[in-house]
Amino acid sequence: MANASLDHEMCGHVLNLEPCARTTVLDQEGQRTLKLEEQITQLFDELRQPIRRYLLCLNVAPMEAEEIIQDTFLRLYRHLLSGGNEDNLRGWIFRVAHNIGINDLKRRKYLGPSNHRQGADPSALSIDPAPNPEERLLRKERMVRTHAAISALSERQKECLYLRAEGFRYREIAEILGVTVSTVAELLHRAIKKLTKESNG
Predict the structure, then answer these.
(1) Which candidate, 126, 196, 131, places its Cα nearest to that of 161?
(2) How far apart are CA 93 and CA 84, in angstroms?
């Protein structure tokens, strides 16, 4: 009988602690979620524009690029919430955005030249009104040559070149694009060689 009352007291004591323990667990989970949201918001603010530019480089339409960015960061949230690896999140984000963008393009059978950029006059990219007419003409000619040289690159070369310009190392570019490091090096070498040759005349 004494054991029964002791068991009852212990159960009552344990039951009394459960709500407190539950509150602590909920507080910890809430803090973890809040920290996670802050981390993702910071990454979103930092990487939204670079990812958007990269997706536009892949010939994704601007509205589709925004949807892909949202989807990418939603996937990042799920990845981190489930305890996913936090190493090189920047590379992870670009890789996911790249994959979604490529899959979207394949699904829409939209692998040709970008329609939303066709018809745009590359010389109109010269914005600075301060130079004199001769300097403006030289800039326009240089922009036209540069634009033509970039347009002549293969899609893979453009992707590698853009990611390198965003500061990714060869290894990271290889991971994002799903190719070998030597392939990245070769693509970049050929792209730079072709750009140098074309832009110089």
Answers:
(1) 196
(2) 13
